Amino acid sequence: MAKKQKTFRPKPRLPKGLRDIRADEIGAMTNMLARLREIYELYGFEALETPAFEYSECLGKFLPDQDRPNAGVFSFEEDEDGEWVSLRYDLTAPLARFVAANYDELPKPFRRYQTGHVWRNEKPGPGRFRQFTQFDADSVGADSVAADAELAMLGADSLEHLGLKRGDYLINMNNRKILDGVLESAGIDPVAEENASQRLTVLRAIDKLDRLGEEGVTYLLGEGRKDESGDFTKGANLAPAQIDKFLVYLRAGNEARGDVLGALEPLVSESPSGREGLAELREIDDLLEAGSFKADRVRFDPTIVRGLDYYTGPVMEAELTFETKNEEGEMVRFGSLGGGGRYDGLVARFKGQPVPATGFSIGVSRAYAALEALGKLEADKRNAPVVVLVMDQEQKGRYQAMVQSLRGAGIKSELYLGSSGMRAQLKYADRRAASLVVIEGEDEQAEGKVTIKDLDVGSELSKEITDNKEWRESRAAQKTVGADDLISTVKEMLAARNTDQEQSA
Amino acid sequence: MAKKQKTFRPKPRLPKGLRDIRADEIGAMTNMLARLREIYELYGFEALETPAFEYSECLGKFLPDQDRPNAGVFSFEEDEDGEWVSLRYDLTAPLARFVAANYDELPKPFRRYQTGHVWRNEKPGPGRFRQFTQFDADSVGADSVAADAELAMLGADSLEHLGLKRGDYLINMNNRKILDGVLESAGIDPVAEENASQRLTVLRAIDKLDRLGEEGVTYLLGEGRKDESGDFTKGANLAPAQIDKFLVYLRAGNEARGDVLGALEPLVSESPSGREGLAELREIDDLLEAGSFKADRVRFDPTIVRGLDYYTGPVMEAELTFETKNEEGEMVRFGSLGGGGRYDGLVARFKGQPVPATGFSIGVSRAYAALEALGKLEADKRNAPVVVLVMDQEQKGRYQAMVQSLRGAGIKSELYLGSSGMRAQLKYADRRAASLVVIEGEDEQAEGKVTIKDLDVGSELSKEITDNKEWRESRAAQKTVGADDLISTVKEMLAARNTDQEQSA
Predict the structure, then answer these.
(1) Could you tell me which chain A residue has the CA closest to the CA of B114?
(2) Which residue out of B1, B55, B91 would a mutagenesis test of the A interface target, given it has the greatest number of A Cβ atoms within 10 Å?
(3) Going by fewer Cβ within 10 Å, which terminus of chain B is more open, N or C?
């Protein structure tokens, strides 16, 4: 094989925005996903898995970044039938396809959770990857906002189950219908086709409040805004009186849920959508109270929009409130790690009849980064293997038998599989972060003994050691015992290590 | 949204060879993968995750189906830099790229396991999907065949840990070097570039022994073979005396490992590769004996080839020996569910210097099908939710509070989120395979009580029931208790259900 490729040697590298994930992160991530699964199942959502790619027309294009048309998705022509397929960019579009395809046989509401990779064909940047993991729950066929309230509770319970403490996070809710109500009060019909683009520009402007402040949003609601680099973003062309309505709206606050509703009421009292939106939030408030979810967990916040075009009712965002260092070393709020909302139109794309639906999605990589910043990752400290050294290549069978007996006792262990000498074997064990090494050299074998060495304790010393004799004499945290006591001694020494680690953790 | 799409309504469907996976299978699959992970980690392999797609030139094309050039892989041009990328078709090619890219910092040997989806652009068929899951272990940088022996042990231990019993499976091993030895004995230099295509045709012919029998293989080693449909497959054009050598080879048997080696020895005694291959199997035999892996678990079988071109030494195949019904309803051997071998050239593609490596891969979907056929899937029987019915839409908060208290007690439960009446709610609970439903109607509420109903027991009856009063009177496996006793009663009734299920399992 190598021969055939003589003329061309590829450079081993990954496309930008993709990365390999090593064992420690996989271990912590696996624990994290298991915890999320526990909560999602406790809430009565059932698992679903859909394939990585689907027909492009089934997935549609519902990404927030519509400034870059046709972008955002990885697509290719599929040989079998010549149709275009796309890698999924979220888990909601495949769910809509799944529900439409299996509508009659599904329980309604259909409550499903799904976790998996999604792919975005976007410009990669620091911490911004083109393959990442989402964890979603959705209720399809549920018109009651009890479904939305439940997802807010699920979000809050999930974050706490991951180890975040109350106060470190908030679920912020709003209702697109109230935003439409403000539009309506400003004399703009929010459902008229000819206003669709203006409405979207307004939503996007408000969505940028935390980044641009009230002044920036005012420009974007009006004629437009030039940023520091000189780039100009077109505005929604609202008149000053219309803009004022939105500014009053944005100042409605986000403390006690009842107060927020009270502040919003006069703004939308003339608008049917606005009144409907308020009534829905009021019902959500009742349900949250009934479930004992106070405003220290789930808030109402009029500034929450969510980027996706397809939301039709309540929207929510999970926010981490503690500060962390950004890439420039400044302390900043950690910010959003997921969200969702009601999308009554997505299944209708296929079926022609509206199917109410609502969902919530956690960005798993963001959640991972958050737990890492808080030192709350559950790494598996007992993951290090015992390495049995090969002191005599001719007697590998002896060492193999030791390894097999250790494994038989449930002890993670391995035979050194290379062909190098003792020094390299110790270096190997060190790189593997091995817990213990087992040594049966000529002397030990003659006496029917084995030596077991704790590498952490002896790691400083081992750098100086070149042969087995000197090694044995240093005797730092090592035991030489009868061969029959191998397993019991390894167990003892592992237990001692774990106790040490727990105390120092 | 629905409005905009008025003119076009996509059909909700999946490309051929892709499928959705529902909760029961995901649950059993998750348990299965966790068990494999336990064994792979016990053996001291560490986890790695690589992205779904990579540069096509890094993955290379090492699929067995070379009759369809450029096929087998899903590829597309990547916008960011205009280079071609491909979805990974196995987990070995990404590993070779990863090791080449991180060579200096990795412990050597590098022992990694990886599980994940792979994609093949092949003609889909019954049970033949274009997205499926593999579970691989590889040792890179290990020149000793102790690494190969270990993978055979890992394979055997994995299958038993999944629940297969001894006798239901075999790990069959061979060595490509012995096959090369037979070629050499037949006067064909197996490493000469000009013989590469003939060598591959010979390997493919032998690989088809189980399907075509000795006669078919004889044709394929000679001028070629016409199948029943009239299609002609070109042969390796060996002379009759050369073909005879292979027929003797194929009859070497596969019982006691020592006997197989004895039968092969005279066939390759004149060939350096052949002798080397035999010596390697002899060392593997010693190590298997040392680990107490007898021929009822790991066999030597000269007919094992494995389809991939890149193997350079020991190869192995995991075979299930029990019979199962095929699509035509005939009883057939279950057959292969994975395999692997030594591939010393794959990392060399990048590095220019040989890096010894060996791997073993389990086809997870095949393993799942096998466990299903044997009735050994670990489904989660306690997965059914408690559904709290909404008897009065105006009082959802009351029911929400019940759900939250159940969840607080760790009981999987949900509020009915639709807007339908009691009959539809019971139907919903039935479709959800709910364990219990909780009912608090007007009468119960007046008395401070709740009714809890076991759906399985009452499912026949419920079809006849149209209102709450009649329901309560039927009283099949239902209890009406004080509202304060909700949780304790639900726990009792769930425990009773689980006991029943265990007894009937």
Answers:
(1) A23
(2) B1
(3) C
CA dihedral A121, A125, A129, A135 (to 10 degrees): -100
3-state class (DSSP) for residue A62? coil
CATH number of A384-504: 3.40.50.800
Q: What is the pLDDT of residue B380?
A: 61
Please tell me the CATH code under which domain B385-504 is placed. Answer: 3.40.50.800
Residue pair B132/B365 in contact (Cβ under 8 Å)? The answer is yes
- Which residues from chain A sit within 8 angstroms of residue B194, using beta carbons? none
Q: Which residue of B has its CA nearest to A78?
A: B74
Give me the amino acid identity at A244. D
Q: Which of B79, B100, B144 sits opposite A121 (nearest CB)?
A: B79
Determine whether the interchain pair A44/B75 forms a contact, defined as Cβ–Cβ distance below 8 Å. Answer: no
Residues of B in contact with A71 (CB under 8 A): 79
The CA distance from A217 to A207, in Å, is 9
Cite the residue boundaries of each domain of chain B with CATH code 3.40.50.800: 385-504
Of A2, A57, A400, the CB nearest to B10: A57
Number of residues that this document lists for chain B: 505
Q: Find, among A505, A380, A367, A431, the residue nearest to A24 by Cα.
A: A380
Tokens 């395979």: give the residue: B433
User: Does A107 contact B428 at a Cβ distance shorter than 8 Å?
Assistant: yes
In Å, how far from its chain's centre is CA A203? 25
- Poorest-confidence range of B70-79, B191-200, B226-235, B357-366? B70-79
Give, for B454, the enclosing helix (H) or strand (E): strand B449-454
Checking if the pLDDT of A475 tops 80, the result is no
β-bridge mates for residue B319, sequence order: B170, B336
Instruction: Give the number of other CB atoms < 10 A from CB of residue A481.
Output: 16
What is the distance between the alpha carbons of residues A209 and A303, in angstroms, rounded to a whole number?
7
The answer to whether residue B496 scores a pLDDT higher than 80 is yes
- Which residue in B156, B415, B485 sits closest to A148, CA to CA? B415
3-state secondary structure of B338: strand
User: What number of C-beta contacts closer than 8 Å exist between A and B?
Assistant: 331
Mention every residue, 6+ apart, whose C-beta is less than 8 A from residue A141: A99, A106, A108, A109, A110, A355, A356, A357, B418
pLDDT at res. B68: 47
Tokens of B252: 């070497």
Residues of chain A with CATH 3.30.930.10: 23-373
Contact B20 A74 (CB under 8 A): no
Contact between A147 and B417 using a beta-carbon 8 Å cutoff: yes
3-state secondary structure (DSSP) of residue A89: coil
- Assess: ipTM above 0.85: yes
Tell me which of A2 and B141 has the higher pLDDT: B141
Quick one: what percent of chain A has pLDDT higher than 70? 90
- pLDDT digit string (tens) for B121-138? 888 877 789 999 999 999
Asked whether A155 and A360 are in contact (CB, 8 A), the reply is yes
Structure tokens that stand for B48 in this block:
């790695």
Q: Which of B400, B412, B426 would best serve as a mutation to test chain A binding (most A beta carbons within 10 A)? A: B400
Q: How many CA atoms lie within 13 A of A168 on its CB side?
A: 18
CATH class of the A23-373 domain in this structure: alpha beta
The closest CB to that of B349, out of A9, A50, A393, belongs to: A9
The confidence band for B63, taking pLDDT boundaries of 50, 70 and 90, is low
Do A90 and B57 form a contact (C-beta atoms < 8 A)?
Answer: no
pLDDT tens string A183-241? 999 999 988 989 988 998 999 999 999 889 999 999 999 999 998 888 999 999 999 99
pLDDT tens by residue, A299-358:
999 999 997 778 999 999 999 998 888 778 888 888 899 999 999 888 999 988 889 999
| Chain B residues close to A48, C-beta within 8 Å | 20-23, 26
